[in-house]
Amino acid sequence: MMLKSKRTAVGITVAVVLMIGYIIYAMGDAAPAADDLKGWAIPILVFIGISVIAQMIAQIVVHVTFAVSVAVKEETKDEKIIERIIESEMAEDEMDENITLRSSHIGYGCAGVGFVLSLAALAFFDITAALFLNILLVTFFVAMMIDGAVSIYLYEKGDKGLCRMRNDE
Question: What's the whole-model pTM score?
Fold first, then answer.
């Protein structure tokens, strides 16, 4: 698995763990009342902040682990060789840009559909504003998962997978 796929997989894992934590909180006794928008906004913002910090820590751990594994695998103490290998793995080329563009496009599309569906639920099913916020949060989470899954798929397929998808359009 490529480093970029590993970074994405770790990011998805951290997001899933945090979303499970949020769902446990939202279903628990400590959750605010259904009509308390400020009471719901604060924990959502806290979970977003925790998510940002957790993602940064996870990415640092992935990069440190990768650097150590390269050093062990190469069985050399020559830092220049190790740095060159790490830089080549971290370098972004046209394929990386295309994969990012493709997966982001799909992820944003899913987020847009989720937003419209949550608005429709608010308009036609008379849900509470707090439930609207939670549906919106879950749809953005699902969109992020789809974005990451598409990215991993395209990285693991490589150029052939991306070219095949381009020709299908």
Answer: 0.80
